[in-house]
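Q: How would the structure tokens look for this protein?
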Amino acid sequence: MSELTPFKKRAYLLVEVEPGREAELIRRLEEMDKIVNTDFVHGEYDIVAVLEGNWREIDQTIIAVRKLPGLRKTVTLTVFDLPLKALE
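A: Here is the predicted structure in token form.
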């Protein structure tokens, strides 16, 4: 068995939106099954979405998000599968 601890996979999706379309996009993201949280933020990106599931489900969700109207750019951050003791 691998040293990697089993847990649900997670990714963070940073989303840049056309001005004025933030609320619409957040509503659409919140309807997606594998998106468990969305935050409207200030900075280079407008929305941070948290995705959970297996890698295939996360990938399919990101592809669906990227097709939404009003979206300018996305960046995906995937979470490492490392046990905490490996970071010490």
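Confidence is low (pLDDT under 50) at residues 1-6.

The chain has one domain: 9-79.

Upvote if useful.
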